[in-house]
Amino acid sequence: MAKKVIVQGLTLTQLADGYAGKAIDSALKRITDDIQDRGHDGKPRLLTVKITFTPDPSGRCEIEVDAGVKCPGYKPPKTVAKIDQRAGGLIFNPDCSENPDQAALPGAGTSED
Question: Considering the chain, what percentage of its residues have pLDDT values greater than 70?
């Protein structure tokens, strides 16, 4: 006789031939990787496990598992630009994102000094 398992909290990862557990593990890895990539930014990550039970008239029930991850968007700091008619549009300083007028220090890595 085939092995039979009751659907309960401890057996949910065994659904879909074990792929339910693999989907949850994959989602957890995405969260861990995101935290490692960005550092500890204090923003929450959300793991959602949706399990859908659809019964049919014959007494069977289809069970589907969906593991989703929501991470905060990437939001770098603001850049301040200013309109410069001679340059033909907005200009900014890539070495000082908060001040488009910031002058470079003499001898600070430019060959023009």
Answer: 95
